[in-house]
TrEMBL record:
Coiled coil: none annotated. It holds the Pfam family STAS. This is STAS domain-containing protein. SUPFAM superfamilies: SpoIIaa-like. CDD domains: STAS_anti-anti-sigma_factors.
């Protein structure tokens, strides 16, 4: 577990690492967020990452850039990534206005995000077995 005050938490949940972002995250939090995303992506014993944004009330373009960067790093590592809400109206607006909502794998709830990732992991394991 990797808590940073109470705005950021990294916690394994089975084969998935859940990164929970809470309250307000902006430029001053960039280093901690980058470290948390890297820790999640490289966490041994897990195969996917869920960014839980349900309790996030504010984010700026810095955080969005970090999320897009970690998405690319996850793709390069062939590690599934999803973002879960429900999204605060300001966060949903940021995702919509920037077009990020069309390129990021979004789930309405944490459970839905976990199900999406488990499905992707099962599908990948099935394809590797054949």
């Amino acid at each position: 577990m990797f808590p940073l005050d109470n705005t950021l938490e990294v916690r394994p949940q089975g084969r998935i690492v859940v990164v929970t972002l809470r309250h307000e995250i902006d430029l001053q939090d960039a280093d901690a967020v980058t470290e948390a995303f890297q820790r999640a992506r490289t966490h041994s014993g897990t195969d996917a990452t869920l960014l839980d944004l349900a309790a996030l009330t504010f984010a700026d373009s810095t955080l969005l850039g970090l999320i897009l960067q970690t998405k690319a790093e996850h793709e390069q590592a062939r590690r599934p990534l999803a973002l879960s809400g429900p999204f605060h109206p300001g966060i949903q607006r940021l995702l919509d206005l920037t077009g990020a909502a069309t390129v990021l794998p979004l789930a309405g709830t944490r459970d839905e995000g976990l199900r999406q990732l488990h499905t992707l992991l099962s599908t990948a394991a099935h394809h590797e077995a054949h």
